[in-house]
Amino acid sequence: MKTLQCGRFALDLSRPLVMGILNVTPDSFSDGGRFNRVDDALARAESMLAEGADILDIGGESTRPGAPFVSPEEEMARVMPVLEKLRGIGAPLSLDTRRAEVMREALRLGAVDLINDVSALEDEGALPLAAASRAAVCLMHKQGNPDTMQNRPEYADVVLEVADYLKRRLQLCLDAGIARERLLVDPGFGFGKTLEHNLTLLSRLDEVEQIAGAPLLVGLSRKSMLGAITGEDAPSERLGASVGAALESARRGAAVIRVHDVKATRQALQLWQALRDC
C-alpha cells in the first residue's frame, strides 16, 4: 500500500485524495473574503470534512496572477488563529505558504501536517525547517512571481522543463533528509503557463510524475483556464469543468486533487473508482 507520511497522519494513496481549499484571505480569485473571519473559516472546514475532504489546505496569501503583496506578519495574522482552532479537528492540515517565517511559526504550533509551497521551498531557511519537521511537503512549479507570471510565459517543452525542475527540487529535499514518502509535486497549473501549456501538462501528467519521481498534487479547481475553455467568466460557475478536470487528473495518476467543491468532486471520484475497481 502506497502511503503519504503526512505529519500526524499516514494517508492511503490507493485512491485519489481530496484536498479542500480554505482561503482565509480577502482577495483570493474565487472565494476571497468569504472565510477570512475565524468563525466562518471553522464552519467551512467542518463543512468540507463532512463532504468528504481528506485534507484541509489553509492559505493566508493569494497567489493568483496580479495578486498584491502581503507581508509575512499579515499572512500569519490570518492563518495562525485558524490553525490553532483546527489543530484538534482530527484531519490533516496543510499550510499553503511560500515563506519560511510563516512555516516556522505554524510548525511551532504543532498544527501543520503538510507544507504546500508554490515556491518549492526556495525561500531562505524553508528547506531545513521542513526537513526538521514531520510534515509532508508539496513542491510546486511556477514561472515568475504572482505579479508577473502570466506575462508571456515561454517554454521549449513545458512538460520536460516543469518535470525537471520538480525532480531537482525533490532531490534537494531527499539530500536534506526528507523521506520520499513525505513528498508530493505539483506542476502548478496557471502559475506562469498559457492555456496551451496547461492543457499539455494535463494531457501528459503521467510523464511529469515519472520524471519528477513523486506522487502528484493537482489544483485545477475553478481556474481561469477552465473559464477560457467554457466561456464562464465567474469562477463559481465552473463547477462542471472543475469536476471534469479532477476526473481527468485522477485518470492520469494524480494522488491528491485540490478543490473548492468537495462534495461534487468526491462523488465523481467515487463513481470513477467504482468503475475502475469493478
UniProtKB/TrEMBL annotation:
Domain Pterin-binding: 16-270
InterPro entries membership: DHP_synth-like, DHP_synth_dom, Dihydropteroate_synth-like_sf, Pterin-binding_dom
This protein's name: Dihydropteroate synthase
Keyword Cytoplasm on entry: no
EC number, UniProt record: 2.5.1.15
Pathway recorded for this protein: Cofactor biosynthesis; tetrahydrofolate biosynthesis; 7,8-dihydrofolate from 2-amino-4-hydroxy-6-hydroxymethyl-7,8-dihydropteridine diphosphate and 4-aminobenzoate: step 1/2
Role noted for this protein: Catalyzes the condensation of para-aminobenzoate (pABA) with 6-hydroxymethyl-7,8-dihydropterin diphosphate (DHPt-PP) to form 7,8-dihydropteroate (H2Pte), the immediate precursor of folate derivatives.
Lineage: Bacteria, Pseudomonadati, Pseudomonadota, Betaproteobacteria, Neisseriales
Superkingdom of this protein's organism: Bacteria
Organism of provenance: Chromobacterium piscinae
NCBIfam families: DHPS
Catalytic reaction annotation: (7,8-dihydropterin-6-yl)methyl diphosphate + 4-aminobenzoate = 7,8-dihydropteroate + diphosphate
Family (UniProt): Belongs to the DHPS family.
This protein's UniProt keywords: Folate biosynthesis, Magnesium, Metal-binding, Transferase
GO molecular function: dihydropteroate synthase activity
Uppermost EC category: transferase
Cofactor: Mg(2+)
Keyword Transferase tagged: yes
